[in-house]
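Minutes, project huddle
Topic: does the predicted pose make sense with pyridoxal-5'-phosphate bound?
PN asked that the exact inputs be recorded in the minutes so nobody has to dig through chat later. Recorded below.
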Amino acid sequence: MSRPSWLQALLRPNIASLQPYSSARDDFKGEAEVWLDANENPYPQHGLNRYPDPLAGALREKLAAIKGQPAESLFLGHGSDECIDLLLRAFCRPGQDAIIVQPPTYGMYRVSAAIQDAQIIEVPLSEDFQPRLDALKASYSESTKLLFFCSPNNPTGNAIAGEAILEAADAFEGITVVDEAYIDYCPDRSLLPQLAQHPRLVILQTLSKAWGLAAVRVGLAWAHPAVVAVLNSIKPPYNMSSPSVQAALAQLSNTAQLHERGEVLASIDERCNLYEALQELPLVQHVYPSQANFLLVRFANPKQVYEALLKKGIVTRDRSTLIHCEGCLRITVGTPDENQRLLQALSEMDA
Ligand SMILES: *Cc1c(COP(=O)(O)O)cnc(C)c1O
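Predicted holo structure (tokens), as shared on screen:
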């Protein structure tokens, strides 16, 4: 496939000219009776002795069909974290290029950038966790290659308005990455239907949250087919293991559409119940509205609350050191039983 000139210009020069590794399973893809091309052990009967399909084609087709997008727009990574890492490696020259992050947000953008030695430009969200478009636009430069949005945002829980993201993306000459890890809790907020109109957009999704497959490690990056081809050319040849792909396929064919399983609606119901119940507690100063499967909750003394919950066997995430998150714990919505235990434990503490 010929690569568009805007992409050729954005890529690191060494990636733009990369001759990718061609694995045995790339060189020959057909059916055969005797496989003597990949130095595998031919004896085991457990079905795990052969290298997997480098592109996990069956899973890719299935996910593309579920989301109503062409498979060539989908890259599959070992979790979204691999997708984030590969984006950094494709676009950011170490010591020269930069990414923009909007804290408080997911920590991996910053860590992947630090590993790549890319500069990190912070344009914090406003106090009500909305993007500051003027400040964003003022931070763009030729060496700014990636702009990260997270919607719904972790740890705040709010979905960001699609119009704001697209306005920022259209004004940006680099790649805008929208991390939609929690989008299956608010599918109508997804920007995936806009992808075809915005070639420099990359949308990250994952099977780790609503799909309930965190252990399986499947991350999705939806992008222009030429961007997908670049990611495929720089990933480790066999990044998707056969057991993971099999497990994912088995779950996807059980459910076809996620909402048929009812778990997403149950979690949303429980989130609403928890949102109400937490506000009744004297200990709680504020509960932020959420479109995801967690709540950001403000306490006067978050460290004490965290420790007291831990003593009762309940683990939450202390986010109180992040900008605009003073006093806040991030609490995942559990089963009705687990949420009841949380509320009980909190109500037994002194305000
Ligand atoms: C949990 C989470 C992910 C998931 O990463 P995986 O590697 O796919 O498990 C990605 N982004 C955000 C914002 C998350 O909260």
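Observations noted during the meeting:
- The mean pLDDT is 95.
- The chain has 13 helices and eleven strands.
No decisions taken; revisit at the next huddle.
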